[in-house]
Amino acid sequence: MLKDEKLVARVIEAVVKSVDVPVTLKIRTGWDERSKNVETIARIAEASGIQMLTVHGRTRAQMFSGHANWEDIGLAKAAVSIPVIGNGDIVDAASAREMIRVSGCDGVMVGRAVQGNPWVLGEVHAVLTGAHLPAAPAAAERWLIVSEHLHHLAEHHGIRTASKLARKHVIWYSKGLRGSAEFRQSFQTLTDWQQMLDVAAGYFLGLGAHVHQHVLRPDIHSGLHPDPELTVAV
Ligand SMILES: Cc1cc2nc3c(=O)[nH]c(=O)nc-3n(C[C@H](O)[C@H](O)[C@H](O)COP(=O)(O)O)c2cc1C
Questions:
Q1: Is CATH 3.60.15.10 correct for 5-129?
Q2: Which residue is closest in CA terms to ligand 1's atom 22?
Q3: 1 Cβ partners below 8 Å, 6+ apart?
Q4: 112 CA closest ligand 1 atom index
Q5: Quick one: which of 193, 232, 196 has its CA closest to 216?
Q6: What are 72-94's pLDDT values in tens digits?
Q7: Check: CATH 1.10.150 for 139-205?
């Protein structure tokens, strides 16, 4: 729809008119590299009654490839006076802070970095509000969250589907942790739900307190290095 700016305006106006709650919008920066229109769409959104705008700094054509362009988020921020939330490639507190510095955005939205690492939200929140970094989750807390997640998967999808979905989630939770490669290899062959729970419990509860999980992906914003103070010990 980003290609048809008049349609964008019509759709937003229709939605805003038909509900009595604040309407927010999330957009990409344009259809493709040659037709970026993030500023125009941001202005249309504001003029059409949108109360808060989130910008994922990639084009539609990019899907999830390449880097999110945080300068483009800044273009939207400069174009409107409604709050603008930046999104794309935030992987930790340092990258959240850097996105705000580059784009001037009013807040951040964390996407894929939360997969298997919901604690990243506490880390980002602490750094942006000036609070102390929360303690890294101990093995027992980590397992509590993983097992609760598995429980909800089973409750929502049934054990058959949950067993398939659990693989990717549990493997995400183990990413970057000690012994994760060996754990991944054995865990992904399991099909029995109870066995999956037992093996995962054994792994997560067996983690010591001295493993470091580096959450900054090296392919993202190569100029940005992990801040040693922000490395999460798990
Ligand atoms: C599994 C998955 C589901 C998503 N679903 C939605 C969605 O329903 N609506 C949406 O606006 N964005 C959706 N996104 C995009 C994310 O909200 C986000 O814009 C994108 O992942 C970029 O942020 P990140 O680099 O922090 O991951 C989804 C992304 C993933 C990986």
A1: no
A2: 88
A3: 7, 8, 11
A4: 27
A5: 232
A6: 999 999 999 999 999 999 999 99
A7: no
